[in-house]
């Protein structure tokens, strides 16, 4: 039996759900995290992890340090670590060994964001639309996308881009916020967002690994862009908790990061993942996703 090796740069929420989806008899998954403490927690959960802080040589302050030889062992690579002011940390550290792999690698996925499209005033975007980011985060992601594609053009590396919308799932959802008493209903007239359940992201990545199309970009989003306050209201309905008051966006106390999300308003088309990857979303809207999260939540049985 052939055993593939998935190397994950940035073993976060999405990558861990993808790893859990893969058959351990057919897949070895090795991921990186930034600190020895995080590595210890992941290792305790049975995850094969290496420490790499993205800022320089592999860390050696505890935990197993990342070995660049893992790049040669990998059949598939997922890059989920975000770029910083100096660009993509994985490209800075490992562009040369990645380029040497070239077409020998079966698949490389880069997790980007629909922030690369910028603000569309509530209009629709698809993968062929111009990339005109309006936030610093969007500009960094676009620069990273372009750097990965440039490396692919020079080396044959099979790069695939996945532009994600707001990610939610168990432990990171409006249901969890409502139960914790931290949910807020922010009202900015006309504002809509798409979301995507983490398990649907994992399904898209799995489908792409099974049918690579190097150089392709995919929007990974649900079917329904909706005002954020509606999502909180649905979580309150499911859990039986009272609605938090509606807060006008102009007077809301928001962090700079949160406010940057509201600076862009668009509806994201997801036809390509359905047409080319034959993906059927398990959670086509936030309603199905939140309902499943609530059914599985310990508080639902209380």
Task: Explain what you see.
This protein has 302 residues and is α/β, with parallel strands linked by helices. The protein has a domain at 4-168 and 196-221 and 267-282: Rossmann fold, CATH 3.40.50.720. Helix content is 37%, strand content 18%. It is built from eleven helices and 13 strands. The chain has helices at residues 13-21, 36-44, 69-73, 89-101, 136-155, 174-180, 198-210, 228-239, 256-262, 271-277, 286-296, and strands spanning 4-9, 27-33, 48-51, 76-79, 107-113, 124-125, 159-164, 166-168, 185-187, 195-197, 217-220, 246-248, 267-268. The strands form four sheets. The protein has a seven-stranded parallel sheet, with helices on both faces. The chain starts with a strand and ends in a 6-residue tail after the last helix. The relative contact order is 0.13.
Measured by DSSP, the beta-strand proportion falls in: 15-25%
Total strands: 13
CATH superfamily of the domain at 4-168 and 196-221 and 267-282: NAD(P)-binding Rossmann-like Domain
Q: What is the CA-atom radius of gyration, in angstroms? A: 20 Å
Average pLDDT reading? 93
Order of helices and strands: EHEHEHEHEEHEEHEEHEHEHEHH
Give the helix/strand layout.
Blueprint lengths: L3 E6 L3 H9 L5 E7 L2 H9 L3 E4 L17 H5 L2 E4 L9 H13 L5 E7 L10 E2 L10 H20 L3 E6 L1 E3 L5 H7 L4 E3 L7 E3 H13 L6 E4 L7 H12 L6 E3 L7 H7 L4 E2 L2 H7 L8 H11 L6
């Amino acid at each position: 039996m052939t055993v593939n090796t998935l190397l994950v740069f940035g073993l976060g929420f999405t990558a861990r759900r993808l790893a859990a989806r893969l058959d351990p008899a057919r897949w070895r998954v090795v991921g990186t995290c930034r600190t020895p403490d995080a590595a210890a927690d992941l290792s305790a959960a049975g995850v094969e992890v290496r420490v790499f802080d993205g800022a320089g040589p592999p860390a050696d302050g505890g935990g197993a340090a990342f070995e660049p030889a893992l790049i040669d062992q990998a059949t598939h690579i997922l890059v989920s670590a975000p770029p910083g002011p100096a660009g993509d940390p994985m490209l800075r550290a490992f562009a040369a060994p990645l380029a040497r792999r070239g077409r020998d690698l079966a698949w490389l996925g880069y997790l980007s964001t629909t922030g690369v499209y910028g603000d569309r005033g509530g209009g629709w975007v698809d993968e062929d639309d111009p990339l005109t980011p309006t936030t610093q985060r969007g500009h960094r992601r676009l620069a990273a996308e372009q750097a990965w594609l440039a490396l692919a053009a020079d080396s044959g590396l099979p790069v695939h881009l996945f532009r994600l919308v707001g990610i939610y799932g168990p432990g990171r959802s409006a249901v969890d916020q409502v139960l914790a008493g931290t949910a807020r209903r922010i009202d900015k007239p006309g504002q809509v967002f798409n979301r995507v359940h983490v398990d649907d992201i994992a399904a898209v990545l799995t489908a792409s690994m099974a049918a690579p199309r190097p150089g392709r970009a995919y929007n990974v989003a649900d079917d329904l862009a909706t005002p954020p306050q509606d999502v909180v209201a649905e979580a309150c309905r499911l859990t039986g908790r009272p609605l938090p008051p509606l807060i006008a966006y102009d007077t809301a106390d928001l962090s700079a990061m949160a406010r940057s999300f509201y600076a862009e308003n668009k509806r994201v088309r997801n036809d390509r993942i359905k047409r080319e990857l034959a993906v059927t979303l398990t959670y086509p809207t936030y309603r199905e996703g939140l309902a499943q999260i609530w059914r599985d939540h310990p508080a639902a049985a209380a």
